[in-house]
Please model this.
Amino acid sequence: MQKTPLYITAAQGNLTSRPPVWMMRQAGRYLPEYRELRKQYNFKQMMSTPDLATEVTLQPIRRFQMDAAILFSDILVIPESLGCKFDFIESKGPVFETPIRTVKDIENLNSDHSAQNIDYVYQAIRQLKPQLNALNTPLVGFAGAPFTVASYMIEGGSSASLKQTKLLMVQNPALLHQLLQKITVTTINYLNAQIENGVEALQLFDTWAGLLAWDDFKNLCFPYIKTIIQSLNNPNRIPITVFCKNTSAYMELLAQTGCDVISVDWTVNLPQLLKSNRSFAVQGNLDPHWLYAPHNILKDKIQLLLAETKPYQGYIFNLGHGLMPDISPDAVKCVVDTIKSS
Ligand code: 1CP
Model:
């Protein structure tokens, strides 16, 4: 029998001899082998073709041997499965054909069987399993949390201020809740299918929740995340992580969602949090800009972090947010190797 992977041991809140290490956005544009494939296929083709999604998920594992693999996909598969068409425009990001703003727009979204439309993701999971099992590396599945997903649908793409989403929040909150409810139903079915097909952990990304006031977070994010976690059919109790930006503000609420791990951004005092009496494991939280530092400085930074976070109890090394596309793969290697040789 294989040993329990370090990532799982830490996610369950237990002591590990060193922190397991993986990085958000570890599969993607900073890797030359990813960019090489991208010359032949656009992002949506890569995401929706199981062979390509499998290959890209494995690329960082082959190169750096991280302690967990994250499925190569995107949080925007949910809007698409609900019938909201979008495209990724180079240098602009996702652009939706028709933003969701009215009762009619929301009524037109069909959440009943939408998770069945995402079969290519389930197939990629089935293809990845034997390859990752051979390496004893767990596969992390994921979805966007309802508020962040809704914000892309309402804004029609990326937005720095979430103006349209906040307008809906103050002018027609019932409509916003109706949208969040539909996304929640689909997300539960989607994550249940990921579990059935073999993921060993799940992460919910509520990236843009960090732009909300505390009580708006309590009202628009907290109940939907909690409902998702509590509604999952999770017989083996695979660990569930929740990530959002501006984590310090909402920590208390995140802890009450029933998640196993909170993925914290760089605003959190990590050593202090790890020493506190907590009911959850912690993942995070290096500011990815440190990966632009000269490697001797980066190495010192990681060694200091390792000294400050000892003993490693329920702690998974990660970044405070995703790797940027212009970060050097050598910097990623420096981080992984420093942690693995500690
Ligand atoms: O090749 C390309 O041009 C595509 C770039 C890219 C990649 C590599 C996008 C478009 N998505 C992804 C993969 C992705 N996205 C993964 C799997 C790979 C990994 O993490 O290693 C995951 C987990 C996501 C999740 C995701 N997509 C989030 C939540 C996490 C986060 O980074 O905050 C969000 C907000 C998105 C939306 C998205 N996808 C892609 C773009 C350009 C955007 C918009 C980002 C923005 O609004 O700023």
